[in-house]
Amino acid sequence: MNSLLLPTSADRAAVFAAAQGGPPFYDERLKLWVVLDHEQVSELLLDGRLVAPDLDAALQTVERHYGVALPNLRWAAGELPLVLNGERHARVRGDIAKLLSRERKSSGAWRQPVSQIVRSAFAAAGTIEAVTDLLLPIVNVVFDALTQVDAAFAPLTLTRVFDHYASYRHLMAAETGIATLRERLTAAGIPDEAIGTHVATIVLGRDSLLASLSEALIDLAVASRGRRLDQPAAKAPRLFGGVAVGERLVEEAFVFRSAPFAAGQRVRLYFQGYGYREAETERLAMFGAGKHSCLGRALALEVWALLATEIRGVPLTVQSVAFEYVRNSMFTMPKLISLTLG
Ligand code: HEM
Fold it and tell me: Which is nearest to 137 in space by CA: 148, 150, 125?
């Protein structure tokens, strides 16, 4: 099994089923521990002995290796809660929570435009490319409402900052992307001290939402093949997590289910296993657990509920579904989702 390609591999459901109950294993090629069992992932997230990785140190190594400066990514490393620990993490997390609750109090300026996007995409029979015609516009509208700026970056541009295996080209695109985003936020009048909060919300939320809505749409469309979307379905539409993995660092050595985690080793936790559970409570753990659990969970569930309700009102039959994933080790991000409706 290739741990990096697993998130989008065709046999992933079988791999996660087979890994149930087995101990974590050490991937010699990647030089890290891999945890596939979803219960063990939750246990480790709540246990607190694994800590967030030091992104700034990793970026300094990249800078030395390539002889480049990455000032914007290094700045972001101090703003993204997922790679922070302790007090700094608590402060940054609290600021993002406040930004998200302000949006919720303003009762979702994205709702009406999202409904409109779905209705126009499904207005007539024919083929739609759902990433560009439907899902990206929805994610853009949601994040415009949340952050007051145009943050319409190409999928997987900014989140490469978390990807240990990102190429030089991808890292440089992320560096430019963060610089552009900071400029746009400044130009929109966002005060200096709030720019980090906005950037973190966009970086952590956009790709997560897009990848998850995509997975959920693919599932809904495949289950509806040959049937009218507005006819009762065997199963209620469900959200699927598109955030496939999270990474942590072992701070002090400990043994977990016979796996000897040594200080300084990396651990890759697969969230994807939750998607193959039936119980809704288990599936919700796709949003993580513990100190770094997802702050966008309520918003993501609301966006999906609205999208699913709108789709369930479309009086057209799904004739075919085709999709293809981008090669990425962290998100299950589709390159395209082609839906033909008649
Ligand atoms: C269905 C969509 C989403 C899924 C499946 C998802 C999943 C996750 C997961 C699994 C984590 C924890 C990662 C880890 O522990 O390594 C996380 C963290 C986070 N998510 Fe989400 N997410 C989604 C949407 C969003 C949205 C829309 C936002 C913001 C608007 C958001 C903001 C965050 C933030 C800020 C964190 C980091 C919290 C911290 O480190 O303290 N997410 N998300």
Answer: 150
Q: Ligand 1 centroid vs 85 CA: distance in angstroms? A: 16
Name the band, by pLDDT with cuts 50, 70 and 90, for residue 92: very high
Check whether 102 has a pLDDT greater than 90: no
Report the separation in Å between the CA atom of 201 and the middle of ligand 1, taken as the mean of its atom positions: 9
- Does the pLDDT value for residue 340 go beyond 80? yes
Q: How far apart are CA 58 and CA 70, in angstroms?
A: 11
* C-alpha span between 233 and 141 (Å, rounded): 29
Distance (Å) from CA 115 to ligand 1 centroid: 24
The structural domains of the chain, ordered by start, are 6-341 (1.10.630.10)
pLDDT reported for residue 108: 82
Residue 275 has pLDDT above 90, yes or no: no
Q: What angle do CA 306, 329, 334 make, to 5 degrees?
A: 40
The DSSP bridge partners found for residue 32 are: 27, 266
Q: 131 Cβ partners below 8 Å, 6+ apart?
A: 155, 210, 214, 334, 335, 336, 337
- Determine the Cα–Cα distance for residues 317 and 6; give it in Å rounded to an integer: 32
**Residue at 84: amino acid letter:** L
Mutate to test the pocket of ligand 1, among 208, 283, 329 (most ligand atoms within 8 A of CB): 208
142 and 209 Cβ atoms separated by less than 8 Å:
yes
Q: Cβ < 6 Å from ligand 1: which residues?
A: 81-82, 93, 96, 100, 200-201, 204-205, 208-209, 212, 239, 241, 243, 246, 271, 286-288, 292, 294-296, 299-300
For 23, residues 6+ apart whose C-beta sits below 8 A from its C-beta are 256, 257, 258, 259
| pLDDT digit string, tens, across residues 51-88 | 999 999 999 999 999 999 999 999 999 999 999 999 99
Token pair 């089923």 is at which residue? 17
Q: Is the pTM of the predicted complex or chain greater than 0.85?
A: yes
